[in-house]
């Protein structure tokens, strides 16, 4: 099976791994949006006591926060350095209901199908060559009746202006080159992939940013950054 990963993307995030838990560094936006998306996931899936998989976990910001909400979490990624950072941070923070593995989501779906109450795949689909394959694997990993959550970026002129021109070049919120416009994903595309994977696509939620207050907020506007909650039938 060909690995559904872009070596350049893995290297890019590997090179930034030492900054992952610096709340004022290059990953500051992830730290700022994490409480918002964590609460949104928790409100719907009730994380406490659940077996959770975080796909494309990077340095573990979301993984660790879900474990602190009472979930038993496995975080997976294919970039070695961020995983080591995640493991070290969990150890230092004393978070025990959390482990990490360097494994592709498709390979894990072959190994552990139908094993998780909740699967999260945040900020990853726009970084892999075959996002539909990752969606399919996430669906296979969730139990009947389980939840699958995705987040990504819309592909339109507004998203190009805000997520690349403004965020990377003008406001310097992210390193230049973090995103490539052609990899952005329209909600209609993500919904289609989810349905083709056997998921019931449910609620959308947008993430907005106010450059004046420098604050993020949940919104019903999904024209730039957005999340999608899905259920596995049964």
Helix content: 25-40%
Whole-number total of structural domains: 1
Q: Tell me the total number of β-strands.
A: 8
Task: Provide the CATH top-level class.
Answer: Alpha Beta
Q: Mean pLDDT score, rounded?
A: 94
Shape: globular
Radius of gyration of CA atoms, rounded to a whole number? 16 Å
| Spatial strand order of the main sheet | 3-2-1-4-5-8-6-7
Report the CATH architecture.
3-Layer(aba) Sandwich
Q: DSSP strand (E) fraction?
A: 15-25%
Distance, first to last CA = 30 Å
- Major sheet details: 8 strands, mixed
Succession of helices and strands: HHEHEHEHEHEHHEEE
Structural class: alpha/beta
Low-confidence stretches: none
Q: Could you please say which CATH topology applies here?
A: Rossmann fold
Concise structural overview:
The chain has 234 residues and is an alpha/beta fold. 39% of the residues lie in helices and 25% in strands. The chain has 8 helices and 8 strands.
Note the topology.
Elements: H1 7-15, H2 28-45, E1 51-55, H3 61-68, E2 72-77, H4 80-93, E3 98-102, H5 105-111, E4 116-122, H6 131-141, E5 142-153, H7 157-170, H8 187-196, E6 200-210, E7 215-219, E8 225-231
Parallel strand pairs: 1-2, 1-4, 2-3, 4-5
Antiparallel strand pairs: 5-8, 6-7, 6-8
Helix pairs in contact: 2-3, 5-6, 6-8
